[in-house]
Tetrapyrrole methylase domain-containing protein (marine metagenome), 206 residues
Amino acid sequence: VAVISFTQLDDGKESYALNVVRGVLEAAKPEFLAIMIPSDDETPVSPQTWTDAAAEIAGHLSQGKDVAFITEGDPMLYSEFFQVLGSVKSVVSNLEFEVIPGVSSVMAASASSGTPLVTHGQRLTILPKVYGIDDLREAITNSDTTVLMEVDHDLLQALANLEKLGLTGKATYVRQASTSRENVVEDISKLEAEDLDYFSLLIIRR
């Protein structure tokens, strides 16, 4: 592939996806196309960002170059791939593309912790963020297993009273699953703010 594209947070840190694959790309020496997005979760990515990215990608495609967009986990689960693909489709007619599945953090965390997600008709809910204890209670009530992504301070506060939610001994925290920094915590009452990581999640089984 001649061009590797990826999203890059504007805080200056290297793209996590690029860092993962950089070693295997050295021999190929591809061009890199970074799409800058806000590092603040509260700031949405502007539509113009995707429009500009699509124009750049279309330019490479018009020169006969293949372009790959890399993501963390699977491109079809909570990924910017949707926006990139849709934007490129709007400017490139008859676009040919292939989606290569990856291992999502949800599946990796389940495997690393030995925690099954669902079996035999059970219900699974995956939430990108929880905005309070009521939101969390509703998800847990309606599902056999709930996966909460982006474990942050708000979620820790919502989980402060585990007995009230009936979660004692039923929640597993996994940070950076399948990496050298992986950490699995079975007793989430011992989680501290410094344990939190953007690439972390919580698996709750009723």
